[in-house]
């Protein structure tokens, strides 16, 4: 594979940031880095071309905002704005009262493309595509303040996705269960590294429906408890989507899933939900064994160690409220679980989202939870 020049890599960052709908100031800043600080005709033409293409993805409102910022920046520098840029912005302005723009104002969901960019020297890494770029389209909420938080991309899900792609050997051929799966980003990455089975769950039905749509957009068929189809490849990842409100999930229901690994991103946020979350984690971390009559019996923490690997949970979280996190630690201790901070030890090997200035990787902590 031919080496990518520094200029090509920089423009790839600009394109990736635009498609991920990063803040427009960040996208403009990345473009300045490609041209030595000023916004040249080449940079303008690049924006114009990708903005035109992006309008077909239904994200015209964002493209209009970026074009406006681009024109203002060039004019502040007493530069010359390309006619094509003015014309493109005029088209967006003329459509400002259209049905599409009205839908945007009514909290219509939009499409973000999250591009994981593998660096030079990662060609032989198991999760690295031939193009060294894994692009994941996701339908997301435009405004998470309108009660649609499950359809937003949170920093811990980005971190956990980088973690999965950096350490595929931890997840390949493993049955993985995610609590609070949101838009499904982590699950899509688990399928990419060929987890044996991926079970995605959420307690909100609208979030679950959006997640299923995202799986389809990424060419993943979610499984509604159906058996493997004849002729299905042995390495094909089976993905299930389960409606799982933590407060009503029963231990017998949870014990049927038998995961090897449990994952969760930004699930430590509401003190009232923590007892339910911990009860779910305890049920999932207990591995069931078969009794003499063939029924399943839940293992305790001692028998878990006899001839089989214990189940482990990987929880990524931004600690936004110290009291909430301390309440979580107290419950972990009361339920005889062990929690370990793995942030330094298992920090993602690669910085796969270098263009994403809105994502503060250093704010996320990674913990493992298991029975003592």
UniProtKB/TrEMBL annotation:
One Pfam match: Methyltransf_16
Protein's recorded name: Calmodulin-lysine N-methyltransferase
Lineage, highest ranks first: Eukaryota, Viridiplantae, Streptophyta, Embryophyta, Tracheophyta
InterPro entries: Methyltransf_16, SAM-dependent_MTases_sf
